């Protein structure tokens, strides 16, 4: 068990901070597996959610024991361990022109003429997505900035803009169209630091 390897089994309460999308499946599965271990039956958990930058600040301040978040560059005091990879996709409203033109996948250059709902600087994905656009030599028009995925999906669903975001299961609850990105880009990786 990954928590046991990091000494967390000696604590009575483990304080875990995580980005919003990890609360859907990753954190519950981690807690379930840990809780089933007989030597950990007295352990309780407390949880904090937030953006990657906020969570790392809490971790460095000693307010949490573990942070599950996106990788943040230039953090020499933090040990990042990959936990999950998430495919990045283009998300549009169901009736958006891109949804009508492209059924399954799209080149990023085809999206550049439409305004984007973009992750704020608080998001760990922001530098990653900035880099994707820089590699393609593209500059997106930004309609607005948001901190987290569900706000992004909600705004996309009302056709306020399009977005590049992780393919999360919650997208199935929104009136959106999901397009794979034809360009070769690495997946987003969520990490933790024990």
TrEMBL record:
Keyword Transcription: yes
Pfam families in the cross-refs: LysR_substrate
Gene Ontology process terms (BP): regulation of DNA-templated transcription
InterPro entries per the UniProt record, alphabetical: LysR_subst-bd
Alphabetic keyword roster: Transcription, Transcription regulation
Residues covered by the LysR substrate-binding domain: 9-181
A GO molecular function held by the record: transcription cis-regulatory region binding
Protein family: Belongs to the LysR transcriptional regulatory family.
Name listed for the protein in its UniProt record: LysR family transcriptional regulator
Lineage: Bacteria, Pseudomonadati, Pseudomonadota, Gammaproteobacteria, Enterobacterales
Gene: cmpR_2
């Amino acid at each position: 068990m990954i928590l046991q390897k990091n000494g967390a089994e000696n604590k009575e309460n483990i304080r875990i901070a995580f980005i919003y999308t990890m609360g859907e499946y990753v954190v519950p599965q981690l807690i379930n597996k840990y809780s089933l271990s007989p030597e950990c039956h007295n352990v309780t958990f407390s949880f904090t959610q937030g953006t990657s930058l906020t969570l790392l600040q809490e971790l460095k301040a000693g307010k949490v024991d573990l942070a599950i978040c996106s990788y943040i560059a230039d953090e020499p005091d933090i040990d990042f361990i990959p936990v999950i990879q998430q495919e990045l996709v283009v998300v549009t409203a169901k009736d958006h022109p891109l949804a009508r033109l492209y059924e399954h996948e799209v080149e990023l250059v085809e999206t550049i003429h439409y305004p984007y709902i973009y992750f704020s600087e608080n998001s760990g994905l922001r530098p990653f997505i900035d880099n994707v656009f820089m590699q393609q030599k593209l500059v997106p028009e930004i309609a607005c900035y948001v901190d987290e995925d569900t706000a992004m999906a909600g705004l996309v669903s009302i056709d306020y803009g399009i977005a590049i975001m992780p393919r999360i299961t919650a997208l199935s609850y929104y009136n959106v169209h999901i397009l794979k990105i034809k360009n070769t880009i690495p997946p987003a990786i969520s990490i933790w630091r024990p």
